[in-house]
Design goal:
Number of strands: 4
Radius of gyration: 18 Å
Strand order of the largest sheet: 1-2
Strand content: 5-15%
Number of domains: 2
Shape: globular
Order of helices and strands: EHHEHEEHHH
């Protein structure tokens, strides 16, 4: 039997409650951010894990990157802190304009500007030696 690389929750009922609460707080949708919040709620209420997490756990990496908005929530970009620091105020404004335009057209996502993409890649990927 192949291992999944996912630690098993020791209290499945508590996990279900934590997931439901997190999804409610995140607008009723399942997302990586909602599952990050569910994990926080689950651990805070005494939930635990049995086994080891995969070394390629992306949610853990994402949590360490300190993601946040470049401006007002809902009309600005959601980027890691390191990427936000690399952008100038005018570059952030250009990205926010693109995001607002896409949102006004009913789209959930908008393509990164060249500056945002470069900052994101520089902030999130380590160079291989």
């Amino acid at each position: 039997m192949k291992k999944s690389g996912t630690a098993k929750k020791t209290n499945p009922k508590l996990w279900s409650q934590a997931k439901a609460e997190a999804k409610r707080k995140m607008g009723g949708k399942h997302s990586a951010r909602a599952m990050q919040l569910a994990t926080k709620i689950y651990k805070k209420r005494g939930g635990g894990y049995k086994g080891k997490k995969s070394s390629s756990n992306k949610l853990k990496k994402w949590s360490r990157e300190d993601w946040g908005y470049t401006g007002k929530k809902g009309e600005s970009r959601y980027l890691p802190k390191a990427a936000r620091k690399l952008l100038t105020p005018s570059q952030k404004a250009a990205g926010n304009r693109r995001k607002r335009k896409a949102t006004a057209q009913g789209e959930q996502r908008a393509k990164y500007t060249k500056a945002e993409r470069a900052a994101f890649l520089k902030a999130t990927y380590k160079k291989k030696k």
